[in-house]
Amino acid sequence: MNTSSILWLIPFLPLAGYLVLALFGKQMPRKLVPAIGISTVGISALITLIVGFDFISHTTPGTVVEQHLWTWFSIGSFHPEMTLHLDALSLTFIFVITFVGFFIHLFSAEYMREDEGYSRFFAYMNLFVFSMLVLVLAND
Predict the structure, then answer these.
(1) What is the pTM of this model?
(2) Residue 44 to residue 95: CA distance in whole angstroms
């Protein structure tokens, strides 16, 4: 499997969870809200394991994997791009972000159960995980 082909899924899944929970969280059954939050971050953590195993087993030290997502705009020779950058340090950080985020979500499902802003909490947690992943994986 090519590491760069699924790298984009790692930050995208928490973003998708945020969008679903922010837009439809109040209308959802209460038990579905943490399931969406936990599963999107959990699947992101599993994909991180797959990407990490592939990266470690198929690359040499000092290797950088980049995945170009899109170009924002082009003016002459200026082309700002959205590109994900994976090296050993960013891999370490995405392991920490996704797994710690997953366990925080898991613990919070029970802890926040009676809270009034239950769906909002999980939406913002997913947004936070997404933001941290983009911060770590951003090329520039």
Answers:
(1) 0.90
(2) 10
